[in-house]
UniProtKB/TrEMBL annotation:
Record-linked NCBIfam families: PRK12826.1-2
SMART domains from the UniProt entry: PKS_KR
Family classification: Belongs to the short-chain dehydrogenases/reductases (SDR) family.
PANTHER family recorded: 3-OXOACYL-(ACYL-CARRIER-PROTEIN) REDUCTASE, 3-OXOACYL-[ACYL-CARRIER-PROTEIN] REDUCTASE FABG
Source organism per UniProt: Brooklawnia cerclae
Domain Ketoreductase, first and last residues per copy: 10-178
Pfam families: adh_short_C2
Name by which UniProt lists this protein: 3-oxoacyl-(Acyl-carrier-protein) reductase
Amino acid sequence: MTESVDRQGRVALITGASRGIGAAIAETLRDSGYRVAGFARSDAAPAGVLGVACDITDPQAVDAGFATVEAELGPVEVLVANAGITRDTLLMRMSDDDWQQVVDINLTGAYRVVRRATRGMVRQRFGRIVAISSVVALLGSAGQVNYASTKAGLIGMMRSVARELGGRGVTANVVTPGFIQTEMTEVLDEATRKAYAERIPVGRMGTAADVANAVRYLVSDEAGYVTGAVVPVDGGLGMGN
Ligand code: NDP
């Protein structure tokens, strides 16, 4: 029997699926035939996506959220750790709270959902994990010491998972988006956006769909030999790093 490349109906869970990049990933996978669930602090999710209210800083909520997804859709085969926040300010002004909140959501939150998802993946001998990092993980970014640290941490996390679980059919990869048009970047003023766009070789900001298309490949059945990769979706902004 020949197996189809993207087996219809695999279960995918996306954190931070209520808007922005996470919503685009959820829609793209839904449209490719996956059964998709999304976590966010509210249960908002795109049409056709099971929205589960789950704050990923709360270990019990994560466990309960997975239990809901497993009961409604089945074991999670694809996990996209996408939820993230910024609390930007220069290092000398950064409070411990600015640091801790970003670490709790972006890094510890990702660790929690990855750890929980791998249980079922190992049992099924199939899993696809993608963490949404950022171009600043490797470039560094003034005013984002907290954020860039978490985004670099995700690379170490995914590469370690890739080594631990590669033999069990589980891949773990990282996508590093550049400057993508979402609510997270809407807060930036016009001059800053223009200055960024000038530094991007393709000459424009990215869209959430640009990121979702790369994720779609990495989570597909056909990407089984791609693991521990850091895939830039940044219009060339981070080239050479
Ligand atoms: P948005 O701010 O638009 O969306 C963030 C998502 O994360 C929302 O769905 C939000 O839902 C969810 N979220 C935040 N906190 C929690 C929490 N504690 N528990 C569960 N869900 C949470 O961000 P983007 O779409 O722009 O970014 C998505 C990812 O891509 C982030 O990791 C970001 O760092 C990364 N990225 C973004 C870039 C950009 O230019 N936009 C560039 C590079 C990387 P809710 O608030 O309802 O909980």
